[in-house]
Amino acid sequence: MESKSTRDQIVEAADRLFYQHGFEHTSFSDIARDVQISRGNFYYHFKTKDQILDAVIEARLGKTEAMLSDWESAGATPADRIRCFIELLIANKGDIIRFGCPVGTMTTELVKLGHAAQPGACRVLSLFRTWLRRQFERLGRAEDADALAMHLLALSQGVSTLVAAVGDEGFLHAEVDRMNHWLDTVIEGTDRAPAPALRH
Questions:
Q1: Confidence tier at 1 by pLDDT (50, 70, 90)
Q2: The model's pTM
């Protein structure tokens, strides 16, 4: 297997450190030390931390696109594919319990910093939103597919944030079960059943 280029190693290390410690609190020295290269070699590839951030965002976009493509192939039905998204919380539970969602934490930090790269980071969330909307459309919910996609994204982000705050793996599993149950109600159409009439 071909070894990774120095540039790829820098981007991979920066991605991990930005996730674990935040963009603002990760320095050039932190990344160079992690990759074990000299500052001179480091500057050959990247002159500023913003350039590294842009490369990290592009790498995340590429990985997300590849993952969504894999889910398209693996899921026999739109519901199966949506469950791939829901179960991602379980697959990454170790990191989520410690650090939260990598997409949400970066986007939130860049918003707080007023950073110019924030719209780029939001593109990862947009990929998920567009992909989920397409799956809900295929479930026959074209009229509210985007609202359903945003609702599921909100559930996922909220669970990630709370799990990172309280460190409770049991809570994570329970909430994933609830999301899967909610999806069942969407499939059955019972999520929009009329409310019972009020008795006077």
A1: very low
A2: 0.90
Structurally, the chain folds into a number of domains equal to 1
List, in order, residues 6 or more apart from 167 with CB less than 8 Å away: 97, 98
Q: Which of 83, 163, 153, 159 is nearest to 125 (CA)?
A: 153
Domain assignment present for 173: yes
Centre a 10 Å sphere on the Cβ of residue 102 and count the other Cβ atoms it contains: 19
Residue 184 domain-assigned? yes
Output DSSP code: residue 200.
-
Contact by Cβ (8 Å): 78, 135: yes
Element housing 14 (H / E) = helix 6-21
Domain for residue 30, yes or no?
no
Q: What angle do CA 113, 57, 9 make, to 5 degrees?
A: 115
Q: Is residue 24 part of a domain?
A: no
Yes or no: say if 46 and 55 are a contact pair by the CB < 8 Å rule: yes
DSSP state of 27: -
Residues ≥6 apart with Cβ < 8 Å to 187 = 79, 139
* Angstrom distance (rounded) from CA 169 to CA 163: 7
